[in-house]
Amino acid sequence: MILRQRPRRLRRDGFRGLVSETTLSSSDFIAPVFVDATTDKRVPIDSMPGHERVPVAEAVDRVEEVLETGIESVIIFGVPESKDSSGSRAWADDGVVQRAVRDITRKTDAFIITDVCMCEYTDHGHCGILEERAHESPTLTVANDATLNRLAQIAISHADAGAQMVAPSSMTDGMVEAIRASLDEHGYEDIPIMSTAAKYESAFYGPFREATEGDPAFSDRRHYQMNSANVREAMQEVALDVEQGADVLMVKPALAYLDVIRAVRKEFDHPVAAYNVSGEYAMLHAAAEKGWLDLDTVARESVLSIKRAGADLILTYFAETIAGSLSKE
Ligand code: PBG
Q: Which of 129, 269, 299, 301 has its CB surrounded by the most CB atoms within 10 Å?
């Protein structure tokens, strides 16, 4: 049989690697770390097998475990000792993230990113301060502009503790501008902002909310997070964050939004980050536990698809296992 084109020629062992278009490396990954001020021992997160909330005293150990796999950066999430309506523990100098970041900065070389949001700190579980609006639906909603000052205050408290990049994720209009202005005013002009520019109102955040006890006490987040039906709107959100001074543009979640990652990659020259969220991790684990999928292979294939779609930085709960296996290859 004469066939001029035989694509299979390039798929032989020893050659596949040479013609591989996409590669994963441990320097692509940001590992999420949960620090919990309400416990003095590690608490496993049931819906995220292999992940734990660690006490502040073990934050350094936890980060060292990450660094051992070859990953250089972590994003820190906190569970505070108490919650209130204004989320005041989010910017406290002795807050859970601030204490953990101080220790991690002092004792490790990790690149430390912090999540700037309020939902883990408010007793109502929303990502900002609430206000009543009699003639709107919902009547009780996040007060956009009043929340901006709080976010700026949180970012400064993280920078004071030693955070090297801040990642606002509350989907408050104007958040990047408010945080940028405040960082600059405080002498932190070199601290970049990784903005969760296109964050969708997603059911894939379920396990994370269990991990941080950050479920909204009423209603949901669809009056500030994006409608999953929209991609043009995502481009507008991202463009606004670029204008406001964002350094890295994040799309979240990742797997159900690969088209959005690709669209942002094509339109903007900034680094693009993608957050492979908790539910995307949990579903592969659940299927693997039933023996229906091979965990390591599907994890690798999923994360590779995020990179192929156009992400430069990948936040994933698979970071450590994948980096660990890359280092053995
Ligand atoms: C908000 C925040 C959330 C996640 C990261 N930051 C939850 C939310 O918006 O409800 C979800 C990440 C994940 O599911 O892994 N601070």
A: 299
Distance CA 81, CA 36 (A): 8
Give pTM, 2 decimals: 0.96
Pocket residue to mutate for ligand 1, from 53, 75, 114, 117, most atoms within 8 A of Cβ:
117
Q: Is 328 a catalytic residue?
A: no
Q: Given CA atoms 171, 172, 174, 179 in this order, what sign does their dihedral have?
A: negative
Pairing of strands 248-252, 111-116: unpaired
Does 301 reside within a domain? yes
CA angle, 103 then 208 then 198, to 5°: 95
- Taking the C-alpha atoms of residue 58 and residue 175, their distance in angstroms, rounded to an integer, is 31
Taking only the tens place, the pLDDT of each residue in 166-208 is 999 999 999 999 999 999 999 999 999 999 999 999 999 999 9
Range of the domain at 72: 23-327
41 an active-site residue?
no
Structurally, the chain folds into a number of domains equal to: 1
- Structural domain contains residue 18: no
CATH number assigned to the domain comprising residue 243: 3.20.20.70
